[in-house]
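Holo model, zinc ion. Inputs:
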Amino acid sequence: MSELRRLDRLYQDIVLDHYRNPRNSERLSQPSAEASIDNPFCGDEVTVQLDAQGETVDPVAVFGRGCSISQASASLMSETITGKSSREIREIAGAFHRLMRGECLSDREREALGELLALEDVRKYPVRIKCALLGWGALDDALDRLDRV
Ligand code: ZN
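Output:
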C-alpha cells in the first residue's frame, strides 16, 4: 500500500471510530449554553452544550443523529475544543471552515486542528461539506449564547 493510501485509511478509520463511538456525548444536566441545528436535506441533527470554567470552555457535550460525516465531525470537534477559551475555539472554527473551503492553512492552524484534519477529504464532495460543518454551526450559536451569559 502506498504512503498516501495508508494515510487515507488512517483518516477513514478515525472518522468511523468517532461515528461509532462518539466522544463527549453524555448530556450536561445544566449547560451554560446550548444550541441545536439540523440539515433538513439529509436529516442530520447536532446539539452542542457548553459549560464554562472561568475563561475555559469545559465540559462540552455533543449529540445528535445522522450521517457518519456529521456525527464524526461533531465528535472530533468536541475533543478539540474542550479546555480552550472561546477565542481559541473561534480560531479553530475559522480554520476548519477554511479547510472545508480548500484554502491553504498555516502549520500553526493545521496543528490546532489536529485529528480534525481526518475530514480534509470531505471538501472533495461538496454535498458532504454541509454535513461536516453542521456541528460547527451549532457550536457558533452556543458560543454566542455563552458570551451573553
Ligand atoms: Zn449528512
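The CA atoms of residues 30 and 51 lie 8 Å apart. Strands lie at 33-39, 44-53, 56-65, 84-85.
Archived with the compound record.
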